[in-house]
Amino acid sequence: VTAELMESFTRVFVDSVRNSFYPVPQEAIGVGSAFEGWSPREWDGVYRVLIPLNPPPGHAFHPELNSAGQVAARTFSVRVELVCTCKREQLGKQLLCFVHHSQEELRRKRKRSLLETLCTGSYLDVEKTSRWFRQLVRSSWLHVPQSYSWHLVFQPCTRSCQFQLSKGKKSLTVEMLFGVRQGDSDIFVVSQPTEAQKGSSSIFVSSQPAEANFIASTAWPETYAVAEAKFFHHVASQMPCENLHLKCLQVFTCILSGTGFSSSTWKTVVMHVLTTVPLSRWSRREFARRLWDIMAYLRRCLQLKRLEHFVLGNERLPAEISLPPAMQGVEPLNLFEHLAQNPAAHREAMRAYGQLRFR
């Protein structure tokens, strides 16, 4: 239902912004466990989609890193640059040029650049963009076929567009995140932390600094959700049992929950095991053996106090997953750095592993 609704919205969005100088929404991308085919026990029941935003004519987006802390807290600012459109035409008409046309002419034609509408200074403002995007969804709702059978109610949210759909006794919650692609890669900066980042903490592993709870209105968190979903799709096509890795993930995040390891930790471990155990061995009859492979990989990471980020610095990443140039060749990031710095947390993690192995 969510995927079909997003297709309908996309068609209406294109028409709505065609003659404006607002961002141009692109085809939605489902992100998170619900769209990957697994869900942890703590899943909040929200179907999240990422709407990539392209710059309107006469504008360019430049994501700029503004915090180089832990990966879960990396944020960017999206600088908006005006570019010359004097030699460009749209539908046979010469475009207005915000660089060379006079302010008087722009005012006379009631045209304002993105810098004047959705930016704070030179940077795209998440909260202003969210209000505009929410209004775009509101005005588009009656033009999509789903409006005839579903009832839509908006939920309060300052950095995304969240709403509940209901039809009789059926209901579902959808959150539309919006983001900017880094170059031509599969890495985005988004309006709000994604599911994995929200649920990344555990009892003994803190993957985000406390100050990450506050995000400035011009700060866009970085997400690897699209790259991870693309990886899952890539490996599924080469397995004897295309969903076995997802069933393994569900065992650890649902059946064996409560031992202190977060769902994002399990997801990272499973993705690493998928690049070390040949995909031809992921068959139903070897299900238990793959579970033990995952346990053994986690034990080794705990002993070494090192769990490497799956995307950053991973030389085993399939070539199908595209990274921005600045991210290529970087050093792997240790997601278990906290355990290396805190002996008490490491002892608790090893104790939790022993309990998990017994269960």
Structure description:
With 359 residues, this protein is of the alpha+beta class. It folds into two domains: 1-223, 2-Layer Sandwich (Beta Polymerase, domain 2); 238-357, Poly(a)-polymerase, middle domain (Orthogonal Bundle), CATH 1.10.1410. It has helices at 2-16, 33-36, 103-108, 114-117, 126-141, 195-198, 225-236, 244-255, 263-276, 287-304, 337-341, 343-358; strands spanning 24-25, 29-31, 46-54, 59-67, 75-82, 89-90, 93-94, 119-120, 123-124, 151-155, 161-167, 170-181, 188-190, 220-223. The strands form three sheets. Strands 1, 2, 3, 4, 5, 10, 11, 12, 13 and 14 form a ten-stranded mixed beta sheet that branches. The longest helix is centred in the last third of the chain and has 18 residues, at 287-304. The chain is globular and about 75 Å long. It is a single-pass type I membrane protein. Belongs to the ITPRIP family. Residues 261-311 form the Mab-21-like HhH/H2TH-like domain.
Question: Could you provide a short overview of the structure?
Answer:
This protein is of the alpha+beta class and 359 residues long. Helices cover 35% and strands 19% of the residues.
